[in-house]
Amino acid sequence: MVVCGDNSLAQRLVRELASVYGQRVTVVLPSLRGGDQGPQIAALVGDPRLAVRAVEAQVPDDAALREAGIEHAAALALTSGDDQLNIHTALRARRINPELRLVIRMFNRTLGRYLEDLLDRTIAARVPGLDQRSVDASTTVLSDADTAAPSLVAAAVVGAGKVIQADGLLLRAKERTIGTAGRRDPLCTLALLPDAPDSDEGDVYTDPEDRDGPVLLPDPQEMEGLSDDRGTVVLEAITRRSDQPGAPLPRVPRLPVGSFFSRRLRASLLGLIAVAVLLAATNWYVTRETPLHSAYVTLLNVMSINDPELDGSTWEQVLQLLGALAGTALLPLLFAVVLESYGTFRQAAALPPPPRGIEKHVVLLGLGKVGTRVLDQLLELGIPVVCIERDDEARGIAVARARRVPTLIADVTEDGVLEEAGIARSRALLALTSDSGTNLEAVLYARQVHPGLRVVMRLFDDEFAATVYRTLRDTYPGAQTRSRSVSALAAPAFAGAMMGRQVLGAIPVGRRVLVFAAVTVAGNRLLEGRTVGEASRPGCWRILALDTSPPERRRADLASLSPDGITYTLTGDLVWRLHDGYVMTAGDRVVVAATRDGLGALLAGEEPRGAGADPSGTDGPGAGSPAPAP
């Protein structure tokens, strides 16, 4: 694996690839002694537990890429914040190695889609006859805001930071006892926890010889008879309740037409109309013209655009004067109509304030790039939201106005702003501004008002985030706290894309790791023609779901975001909770949870080390013996 960049995302990505997936990684960066994350990456290079090396180059040109071994690399990640530099480097790398898997960080999502199509087309152009479905030389363009948003939403809604995404469904790993695991209808049991659970705040270095850690993917038969108090880690779906519809999407603000005119203005308009009607009737009586002619002449008189009645009768002259007198009230009245209508329209189109008595809502601080994406997903889940933003021209203000989300345009550090947002009755606070100090100040004040509040804050410095987390956890042990940088949350998605489109993500369990992947059944001797029960290997891998979509319509990447957002429902092309007797055929694709070594063995079609023989009984002695936990 090759990673270009010296920012926080690059550092996190290198750590994820090397420690979680056990990959050999080469980093291309300007310097290991300076820059944004040079010293931190140097520490990874010097860690004997990790296979990380570095190539120092000011620009990732052809020479630097070749020195990093791009000709034989499996994947390249471009993490710079400069879209143009990433595009240039991607074109260089694709020219050198047409079958290279590319993962590109880009802020312009429209340009990113065009770039994906362009770079994928170059594969077919340079390698004629190559079937892209059989070779995973894909191009994936990701935004760190899009990839971090699901974890932030999950942390705020259910307090879970360990989430993956599959076919539009958000899945979380949750610690529960055996006695309480069935209350939320889990999809499966991922692990049995030891008596002294590991901390999930440290670095993840998997150790196959660690017998004191959790038992991954246990055999269901082994769990029978265990105490109901034994801790487990189960896989649950984060879904919207059936009685909780998503937020509506009005295209234009709803305007209260009935309140365009005040009561006094309506009375004045009616009075002027009554005078005009009376004058028209009198004119018709005096002149004996048709009613239409009399009304027309009266309107001309009221608007003072008629000729003087020098040759008319006295009554006609009097009526003209009375009409002109009534017309003097028309101009200010019309002016008042315009002003009042404009004011009503402004009020209807403005951001609504938080409703009185609102409760069980999420207070979202910051409507920038990350906050906007989080707001979209919270509304998709049907969760009430109150937003706070200092800049009235921020990216997410238009979204909040279009979807009628209560929003305060204010500085959260000012007195009374959080109280006005109903922080005392809220379920969670998401502090996602680009200022770490503002986020921390808001969280500390909110904790004083509501000590049990669940908080998720965005902090840019990883060490600072860890220190704040531990301090708040010790100070408020009864409340849930999450402090993460966007790069830390986005790194797993970038790493999964580098591992290939079949990898959906990884979830740490203590200091061990489970990888979730989509595997094609065709040609795999461990899957094709086997039942789900026969194909699963306790301690190594377990089959979780079946992709029921036809092969020609299957999404290449089940973990990708749909262009129009995400719908968190248990509907789609994946069927969960498969029966152990289901026989898998060559046209099937399944989702598995596996250890790192187990996934490698499964993709290679080989029995895992120490797993015993084929459970079908065709591979000699030891058939059917369960695989021990690695």
UniProtKB/TrEMBL annotation:
It comes from Streptomyces taklimakanensis. Residues 194-223, 603-630 are annotated as: Disordered. GO terms for biological process: potassium ion transport. Gene3D superfamilies: NAD(P)-binding Rossmann-like Domain. It comes from the Bacteria. The chain crosses the membrane at residues 267-286, 318-339. Keywords: Membrane, Transmembrane, Transmembrane helix. Residues 197-210 have a biased composition (Acidic residues). Pfam families: TrkA_N. This is Potassium transporter TrkA. The keyword tRNA processing does not apply. Residues 359-477 form the RCK N-terminal domain.
